[in-house]
Inverse folding.
């Protein structure tokens, strides 16, 4: 019997799934039986019987599915009714096919005892929970070896079910076979654990139930628990962190499979039929059971909508599906946040709660049922001396007296300090005690000097702040102690750039800081490591990282609002006023160094001068540099690379030098003279006359914008060049994780766009580009490019790359035409809203207007923008490209055909309009 499928609202009114209280609206047994009877009367052979049966059942199936989907759309959170309804519909289809197979296709009057057959649902279907496209796992049970009649019935059933497009997993076994195979294979044992009689011989099904309880599920369950824990660990390693932004609803950490694993183990050990029984047994507290039910309901609802919207059994919440599911569940844009972001925050909060529930439950079971560690390990392992009030229980930090612990509310922080000091994990009972007493953390405690000391020491003293902060966050202590932290817990940033939720991003940032302090990243991060070795105010840098994104998800600029929030929060953490001021400044400008390095030309003296003026002191520069490095590395596992490292180091070193020796060191002429001197040394074997010609042919910007290695390449390319000749040099720049492409040819209007088009055609992503005109009419273009995976091109690919680029530059291939078929935006990326912003800056450079185009990234974008500017007679000196997932900021340093900046507002508006037209045209192509 299917459980009741009607849910009542608190007012007593039925939800939109009222139809499920009348099962005939899902599957009208009487009407279907009559239709089958009428059809069979005119059938002349088994083929016609099968065909007619499938046609009638298919119509009934479609009508039932449509009715469930319609009702679920009106009551999008009623997952229990939805899963039961699909299970009920499937039951009716299975029972109907069995009846047709036994009564119409293979009737047998003289059946023996061996001809008995029971159809048993196992796995999720046996549990009575089904998503729209869940598998139908069937066990065909027989008393002995399958008879010819039973095999014929099963075969006919399966063909009919397959014709109904059901994904059927099946096995044919005896009761003895079920016990034997279940004992050998825990996957089979798990499926049998949730078996359910569907149709056929009831007595046979009852015998199976009794035998399994007596011969398979009896005992401590130790092996079963060990198998399930190992299976869970492997699944988590495969799926990744709970905070991965495109989670698998079924298999990921904190997903449905975790809840199911928890229940499987409980059912195996305690022989319970549903999760509610675990409360009476003391396994779950009442509040924990409510959390279990809420999470299960939410996750099943998400899975149901995911199946319906995709039209198949998909479990991955990809970006495009997140938007669709959020809309289906009624999440709307609010308070500066998209509905999809509100939805995903709800998802990750449920996932976190599932993680906590399973951790507490499974840890407790592990301590009871899993065998102890070897005696020698227990003898020789050094046991830490415990402070008063704590003890070690099965290798975990436990509380000796709950009442005494709660009597001093500072213990709610001290336990995390003790866990870090001893290096021990916290016992599940202690975690429960902390979680159930969060209300004790009040303003008095927040302003207590000892509480402030403990909290800061958790980050500063024990060398492992990640573990303490993560556990505090998952138990709710972090949000209780810093209430302003609560809104960003499990908050997703809906873009392809950030790999983690905001709270996890902050913890990742602090993890990176601790690793740098320990000297573990010295090779990768020499500048940040040297800064920390020299010494900074650790309280300031740790608190700044903790609070730098505290205002995310609000309509206001999170840097400005976050800085304002720091004024209230930092004093509560025990910081002195001068420290509060520095943290406030760091939070306000925590994106400044990253933006300057990635969106501006750091070879331009004005960039460094403006940045130095904003930073003002080397002390601030040091702190901001460390914060910036940790912030970028905390975005995702592959966000930091050598390209960003070179930019950040270059900006830091130039700014530090300017702050220490004076801004006049940034003078163009001084830097130009120094660069020429370096080039002469690098080309010491050149004849003096040729060397003089080379140093005289370039204008001042050339000498400050390129490293001497590139200038040497250009000197060789320009040597003896003929009119109309195109010379290309491709070389891996390992220090920057890119391939440097150098071009020399006769100058002509639009040359930058042609180069960008040639590179776009070969699928190269440009990360930096600069071009300079020589005094004798040539152009030198230097582009740093990466392949589609963000890596330098393999040496083996360079010859073909050179050939394709050469053909394009010679006009043999038309970039504009060829790119039309390549401007495709992937389906999962279309869900992102990336508004276009275009700004003009005449202060950031002495000789150029800086045009910054912030828009959606796509293939060929740089070419489209450069071509649009070229058609407007704009000279592009160089471009800086910063990519943030699906978003890109292309910054162009330009001047007009007379060598002047674009001061005129009307000219700026005209250029902006043309750039927006180029972007829109590309978007249309991408969506075709």
């Amino acid at each position: 019997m299917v459980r009741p499928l009607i849910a009542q609202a608190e007012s007593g009114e039925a939800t939109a799934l009222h139809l499920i209280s009348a099962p005939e609206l899902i599957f009208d047994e009487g009407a279907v039986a009559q239709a089958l009877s009428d059809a069979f009367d005119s059938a002349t052979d088994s083929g016609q019987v099968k065909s007619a049966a499938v046609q009638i059942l298919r119509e009934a199936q479609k009508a039932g599915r449509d009715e469930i989907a319609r009702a679920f759309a009106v009551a999008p959170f009623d997952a229990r009714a939805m899963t039961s309804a699909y299970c009920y519909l499937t039951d009716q289809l299975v029972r109907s096919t069995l009846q047709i197979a036994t009564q119409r296709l293979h009737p047998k009057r003289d059946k023996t005892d061996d001809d008995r057959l029971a159809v048993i649902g196992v796995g999720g279907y046996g549990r009575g929970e089904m998503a729209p496209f869940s598998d139908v796992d069937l066990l065909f049970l027989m008393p002995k070896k399958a008879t010819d009649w039973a095999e014929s019935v099963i075969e006919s059933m399966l063909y009919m079910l397959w014709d109904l497009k059901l994904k059927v997993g099946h096995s044919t076994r005896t009761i003895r076979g079920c016990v034997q195979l279940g004992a050998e294979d825990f996957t089979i044992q798990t499926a049998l654990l949730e078996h359910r009689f569907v149709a056929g011989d009831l007595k046979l099904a009852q015998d199976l139930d009794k035998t399994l309880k007596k011969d398979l599920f009896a005992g401590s369950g130790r092996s079963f628990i060990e198998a399930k824990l190992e299976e869970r660990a492997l699944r988590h390693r495969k799926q990744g962190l709970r905070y991965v932004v495109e989670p698998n609803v079924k298999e990921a950490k904190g997903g449905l499979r975790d809840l199911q694993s928890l229940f499987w183990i409980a059912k195996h050990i305690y022989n319970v039929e549903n999760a509610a029984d675990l409360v009476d047994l003391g396994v779950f507290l009442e509040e924990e059971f409510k959390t279990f039910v809420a999470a299960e309901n939410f996750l099943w609802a998400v899975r149901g909508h995911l199946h319906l919207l995709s039209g198949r059994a998909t479990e991955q919440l990809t970006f495009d599906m997140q938007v669709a599911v959020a809309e289906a569940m009624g999440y709307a844009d609010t308070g500066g946040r998209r509905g999809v972001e509100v939805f995903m925050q709800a998802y990750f909060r449920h996932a976190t709660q599932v993680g906590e529930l399973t951790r507490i439950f499974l840890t407790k079971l592990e301590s009871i049922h899993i065998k102890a560690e070897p005696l020698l390990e227990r003898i020789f392992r050094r046991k830490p001396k415990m402070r008063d009030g704590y003890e070690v229980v099965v290798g975990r930090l436990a509380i000796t007296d709950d009442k005494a612990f709660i009597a001093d509310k500072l213990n709610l922080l001290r336990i995390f300090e003790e866990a870090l000091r001893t290096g021990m994990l916290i016992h599940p009972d202690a975690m429960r005690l902390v979680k159930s007493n969060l209300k004790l953390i009040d303003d008095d405690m927040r302003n207590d000097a000892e509480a402030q000391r403990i909290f800061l020491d958790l980050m500063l003293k024990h060398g492992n702040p990640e573990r303490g902060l993560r556990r505090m966050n998952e138990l709710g202590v972090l949000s209780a102690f810093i209430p302003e932290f609560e809104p960003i817990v499990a908050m997703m940033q809906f873009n392809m750039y950030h790999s983690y939720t905001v709270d996890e991003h902050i913890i990742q940032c602090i993890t990176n800081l601790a690793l740098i302090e320990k000297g573990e990243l010295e090779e990768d991060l020499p500048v940040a490591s040297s800064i920390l070795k020299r010494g900074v105010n650790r309280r300031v840098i740790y608190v700044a990282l903790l609070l730098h994104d505290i205002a995310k998800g609000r309509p206001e600029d999170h840097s400005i609002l976050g800085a304002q929030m720091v004024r209230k929060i930092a004093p509560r953490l025990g910081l002195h006023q001068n420290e509060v001021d520095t943290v406030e400044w760091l939070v306000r400008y925590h994106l400044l160094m990253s933006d300057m390095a990635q969106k501006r030309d750091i070879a331009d003296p004005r960039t460094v001068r403006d940045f130095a003026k904003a930073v003002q002191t080397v002390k601030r520069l040091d702190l901001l540099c460390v914060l910036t490095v940790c912030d970028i590395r905390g975005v995702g596992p592959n966000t930091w690379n050598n390209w960003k490292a070179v930019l950040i180091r270059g900006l830091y070193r130039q700014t530090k030098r300017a702050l220490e020796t004076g801004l006049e060191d940034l003078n163009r002429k001084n830097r130009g003279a120094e660069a020429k001197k370096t080039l002469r040394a690098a080309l010491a074997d050149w004849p003096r006359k040729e060397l003089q010609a080379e140093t005289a042919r370039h204008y001042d910007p050339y000498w400050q914008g390129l490293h001497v290695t590139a200038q040497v390449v250009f000197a060789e390319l320009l040597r003896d060049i003929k009119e109309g000749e195109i010379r290309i040099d491709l070389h891996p720049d390992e220090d920057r994780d890119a391939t440097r492409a150098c071009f020399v040819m006769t100058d002509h209007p639009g040359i930058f766009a042609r180069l960008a088009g040639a590179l776009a055609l070969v699928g190269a992503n440009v990360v930096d580009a600069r071009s300079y005109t020589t005094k004798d009419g040539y152009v030198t273009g230097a582009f740093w490019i990466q392949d589609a995976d963000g890596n330098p091109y393999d040496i083996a690919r360079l010859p073909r790359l050179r050939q394709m680029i050469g053909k394009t530059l010679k006009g043999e291939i038309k970039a504009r035409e060829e790119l039309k078929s390549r401007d495709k935006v992937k389906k999962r990326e279309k869900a992102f809203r990336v508004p276009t912003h275009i700004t003009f800056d005449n202060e950031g450079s002495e000789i150029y207007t800086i045009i910054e185009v912030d828009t959606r990234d796509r293939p060929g974008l740089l070419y489209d923008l450069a071509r649009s500017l070229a058609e407007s007679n704009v000279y592009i000196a160089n471009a800086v490209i910063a990519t943030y997932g699906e978003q890109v900021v292309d910054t162009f340093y330009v001047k007009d055909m007379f060598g002047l900046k674009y001061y005129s507002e009307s000219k700026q508006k005209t250029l902006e309009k043309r750039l927006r037209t180029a972007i829109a045209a590309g978007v249309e192509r991408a969506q075709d």
Notes: The chain is about 55% helix and 10% strand. The two ends are 50 Å apart (CA to CA). Confidence is low (pLDDT under 50) at residues 1-17, 374-380.
